[in-house]
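QUALITY CONTROL LOG
STEP: pairwise intake check
CHECKER ROLE: data steward
CRITERIA: each record must contain a sequence immediately followed by its structure tokens, with no blank fields

ENTRY 1 OF 2
RESULT FIELD BELOW
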Amino acid sequence: MNRGPVLKNDVKPDIQELRSTSQFLIPAEKQSAQKSGYDIYPTFKIDGPIFNGFGKLASWIIAQQQNIIIDGYSGVYWDIFVNHLNNELINKGANVNWININEALKPELVIHATIEPFMGGNDPLFGKIYEDTLADFFDEELLSEITPLNGCLNIIYGCGAALSGWQAPLIYLDVPKNEIQFRSRANKICNLGDHQPADPKIQYKRFYFVDWPVLNKHKKQLLPAVDIIVDEQRIDDISWATGDTLRNALKQLSGHMFRARPWFEPGVWGGRWIKDNINGLNDDVVNYAWSFELIAPENGIILEYDDHMLEVSLDTLFLYNSQAILGKAADRFGDAFPIRFDFLDTFDGGNLSLQCHPTVAYTKANFGEDFTQDETYYILDAEPGAEVYLGFQDNIDAQEFKAVLEDSFQNNQPVEIKDYVQTFPAKKHDLFLIPNGTVHCSGKNNMVLEISATPYIFTFKMYDWLRPDLNGNPRTLNIDRAFENLNFDRKGSVVTDTLISKQRVAKQGKDWQVINLTTHPEHFYAVERFEFDTVVEENTNNQCHVLSLVEGESIKVTTNGLTQVIHYAETFIVPANAINYTMTNTGNSRAKVVKAFVKDECC
């Protein structure tokens, strides 16, 4: 069952061939002379230390004088990692016996049969959350047969290596999920138990519904025992720290403001606002449609010590102690972070697809999620004449509308959407309410801060303006699913009365006020806006607050004696355990900060 490294010692893969994206790979070190303005690599400074390189890791391993377990997440380039580490160990005189845990996996066909009920059949996008554990993928008898050899350093490695049951130091390799997707698009990685890469869309579906849920459960079990955490995304120049350093950092994060690392993607409707206003991104892209500011299942958090950076997945923080982050909302949401912030940029771009999201009952029954994609559109910026499509015209005929959409899809015929769907002028600081089942989309020339419940892939597109995707392929529509969920009572004046937020002053002081922005009863979260010239103070009330500076140059946020800077358009999190925080305006004009949090009655 023993198998050594696959790569030869002289093989040095080009990292750019291992990832299909125009986005830059995160550097190993923080640039000390950071430009002012939005920071695409936000860090949280820790007590450290953080190390770089395979040489130091090899020295640590040899110093243990024990066998070693190297476990980790899907998407890791195991063979490259093992090759680099093996070379360093050999150079230091070690005699290594490498054991690949994949040799104890069940046959691929057996694994596929096990997960088949959760893969949504031939549906190209949707499935259902797998309910069991990583152990289901392994043969218990084969696991029991894994034994170390005498007289050498035995290292068992791969996703699930800790299931071997060895009593040995544990190294865990983490890789951000945006990098997993870039590697998937390059056809360089496989799903758990697969021998060949699947089509990237099918692979992502499998990640979302099967691989990531079981690996998160596995990671949660391992976190208290991890001896070394490795950021593997720079496969030739890893960053790593001890498990104690990681756990101490997670404790620190639980009591202070922090930012997730955003990541950016082009899209068919994408615009130029992000390119014009955010420095450090690759300009050689057609556009930027999204900034994923805070999508907890996919973002990372960057830890910094002495300019060295180490990124771990954001959900690591919630898996470690969700109660500290979510406070009273943890009883309902557990390890799942409930609120999502992202940007939708259509400046000089195009309309989003006309769409809706499923009801809670539909989501639970069909996708295995406990809550659904209830959204709002906060208008961060807009050009004159910008619009939002929201709700139906008063005279809507559901069957006629469906027939028109189906004819458009089959015959590539344009639809005059405004005959069926209302539009509303969009201006800065408006909030449009989009509970599940609501027909909607952003029009051209908006910069939308989308504040939403966390689920993020259940979008039922009905009409996409006859556009192909960025590769020239037809975009998937879900007309039937949309019509199983659309609420046709949201029409006419009902839309104006219930789906456009009413804004009022909730409390105020000498040079500050708090604006309440009403949300819909279907929304489990509330939205408020701080407006202040100098300083404003807030209490978390045992809730997690998600915030964004939506007007003003910069502010300083102080939590438990630690002061950090937030620039315009940056999203940040204040955990429940922070208890109190102070925001100080450091710009030349009034600062405005939007805040979202779970309603007390929805905890």
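ENTRY 2 OF 2
RESULT FIELD BELOW
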Amino acid sequence: MFAETDGSRKTIGDVDVLFHDGLYHLFHLVLPNHDFIAHAVSTDAINWRRVNNALFIGDPGSWDDLMLWTMHISPDPHKPGSWRMFYTGLSRRDQGKYQRLGMAVSDDLYRWKKTPVHWQDHRGPRDPERVKQAVRESRSQEADARHATFDAESCFPLEPDPKYYESSLDEGRHWISFRDPFYYHDGKAGWLLAAGRINTGPIVRRGCVALMKEVEPNRFVAQPPLHHPRLYDDIEVPNAICVDDDHYLIGSIREDAKIRYWHTKKIGDSWLSYHDNVLLAQGNYAGRVCRDDKGWLLWNFYSMDIGDRTAENLMPPPKRLVKNGEGMLRAVTFEGIDAYVREPVDSRCIHSLVDDAGPRVEYCRVDGGHLDLACDSGFQAFVFDETLDHFRFQAMLQMKGVGKCGLVFRADQETRDGYYLSLDMLKEVAQLRAWGTGEAGSGEHMMQFRPLQTGFWYSEIRTEAEVQLIVFGSYIELSINGRVVLSLADQTFSKGHLGVYLETAELRVSDIQLERLASPSQTDDHLASG
């Protein structure tokens, strides 16, 4: 996991990752200040090392002197071996109510210079001459990671064209959405996407993917929206990718804090929706894509407090993006987790979590490579003997009847506190909860019950599911039939027993693989290891 230093009152924000020469480069916002864009590197996409920050808010009077928001880094198609960073800036001049897009360039991904802008500092026309002179002397004469020089011919910072988009503080919500740039080259032309809003229709239904065309190097001209679903307030952090001649548009939706996508065979045609266009469950946000030597990866930050996305954020391991046989885009487990697998755990050593079975009918039969489990009344869990902290569990579940089943993990033998993962095999719904016990004498507050995340899956045989559960530090990931259904972080419980639970059900658990994982070498609350 990747986060900010515990107690710093800072947290990771929107991320962008670029893979180059065997190294993953992470660029991310730092909340709540938004005063610089941080940079970290990794060889395995899981453990990261901070390097020098990439970009900073501009000098006083600049177009970006208040905050920096989401960025996108891509190779410069006009200068091989160089890179461009498109980023969002806010100015003090208009109290941050107007979002604009700028650009910085680099020859090595470490040292960045802001490109010239047509923005001028008009502050203090009545200042004493000595003050005006001090302002002039303080200004840098060369571009760097803080300062952009002036060029009246520059198209930057980019602003929304009133022909297509909200562009005035008198419109809509009285602040201008024009942020989260993403550069896309289709092999013939370059396009810049952004989170914008059309200038007609219901106020909270105007969110669209704004579009600009690169008509000559580093010069962009507004186009009609690439996509307007006519449903959302904003489509944040848009991405465009092509997989086997199918085009996909990925965006994050504030209304339900999910990452969604649309598809088309040809850009220019209508963007279509599948019945299930959710890539990652609620709490995963600001999804960004990058391509490495194995294909497309999806990155995001996860908010442990969904009510406040400016605190307690972490970046989980990425997900590999694949296209299934029906053309749907799916997130699957990142293969880099394999490098953390250690010794297998004996899954034949198993016992009941609850000792007082009473008159119930229960059994747990170990037969060759599978387990036959049953409990006809009430709750029972059959857990493996060893206490586990970090692990990967894989198995095929086959249920008889219409009862309940699921997994428990990091569970305490005596209190039975831990994580409870409900798997509704008939409705095909997965629900994860943290279930604990409060202090004695605290009344109804002794019952600590927190729903963490819900996800859905689809299968031809509803009573069967191939499950994979990864628990790695505070990161929890559930895949069913190869697709990531749950992806989240929680720090309530750190170790305990893993098992299968039943309520009025019979269950066969086969093809079991249970392996310990090495502990993440970086703790969740430490962004860099040195």
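INTAKE CHECK: passed for both entries
DESCRIPTIVE NOTE, ENTRY 2: Residues 524-530 have pLDDT under 50 and may be disordered.
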